[in-house]
Amino acid sequence: MTHSADHPSTPDQATGAGSDLDIRPPAMEDGAAMWRIARDSGTLDLNTSYAYLLMARDFAATSRLAVGDGQGVGFVLGYLRPTAPETLFIWQIAVDASQRGKKVAGRLLDDLLAELPEITTLETTITADNAASQRLFASFAERHGADEEVADLLEEHHFPDDGHGAELLHRITGLQRGR
Ligand SMILES: CC(C)(COP(=O)(O)OP(=O)(O)OC[C@H]1O[C@@H](n2cnc3c(N)ncnc32)[C@H](O)[C@@H]1OP(=O)(O)O)[C@@H](O)C(=O)NCCC(=O)NCCS
């Protein structure tokens, strides 16, 4: 479900309860908040602010921003794979440290699934040491009756710069609605 600023959030699957956060597609201007959240995440690769502004503009339909008290506190940036448009690839997801553990990330993913009836598959990549992200996607798969497989994708030697751990492909198939 998508909520505009004029319409308060309603209960959703990940929380099972109401919430004071609004979940909505980003506008281009929200790229700035996404860049700040990514910068402060302590985990994500920080891309240029230009990249977040363009992604927010061009991939708004497959991305979401969580807003609390007028501030962006979490985001997910995704796109439909051009060669497999039933597959939503999650490029980055992050929640401000002050809001973690409150199912905000789960709500962001659930909102995308609810609004994108064409997707049956979700993919993302996660490093082996990111337990929070692994649990986030495993929980999402369980919640929607889907299967999750993990395979090698981006190995350390693929990265031209130093300091990248291998990114494993998490592929979630058979997503069910209304669960
Ligand atoms: C990963 C991240 C987005 C999760 O956001 P969040 O809003 O705190 O996650 P949620 O509250 O929706 O929790 C989702 C699930 O993960 C679990 N989880 C959350 N943080 C966890 C942690 N640190 N360790 C283990 N499990 C964790 C929750 O218990 C929940 O599981 P459940 O559904 O079985 O109860 C957040 O930790 C973050 O921004 N991390 C830094 C950026 C990052 O690593 N992004 C992912 C890159 S692939």
From TrEMBL:
<dbReference type="GO" id="GO:0019491">
    <property type="term" value="P:ectoine biosynthetic process"/>
</dbReference>
<feature type="domain" description="N-acetyltransferase">
    <location>
        <begin position="21"/>
        <end position="173"/>
    </location>
</feature>
<comment type="similarity">
    <text>Belongs to the acetyltransferase family. EctA subfamily.</text>
</comment>
<keyword id="KW-0808">Transferase</keyword>
<dbReference type="InterPro" id="IPR016181">
    <property type="entry name" value="Acyl_CoA_acyltransferase"/>
</dbReference>
<dbReference type="Pfam" id="PF00583">
    <property type="entry name" value="Acetyltransf_1"/>
</dbReference>
<feature type="region of interest" description="Disordered">
    <location>
        <begin position="1"/>
        <end position="23"/>
    </location>
</feature>
<dbReference type="GO" id="GO:0033816">
    <property type="term" value="F:diaminobutyrate acetyltransferase activity"/>
</dbReference>
<dbReference type="InterPro" id="IPR000182">
    <property type="entry name" value="GNAT_dom"/>
</dbReference>
<dbReference type="InterPro" id="IPR012772">
    <property type="entry name" value="Ectoine_EctA"/>
</dbReference>
<comment type="pathway">
    <text>Amine and polyamine biosynthesis; ectoine biosynthesis; L-ectoine from L-aspartate 4-semialdehyde: step 2/3.</text>
</comment>
<keyword id="KW-0012">Acyltransferase</keyword>
<protein>
    <recommendedName>
        <fullName>L-2,4-diaminobutyric acid acetyltransferase</fullName>
        <ecNumber>2.3.1.178</ecNumber>
    </recommendedName>
</protein>
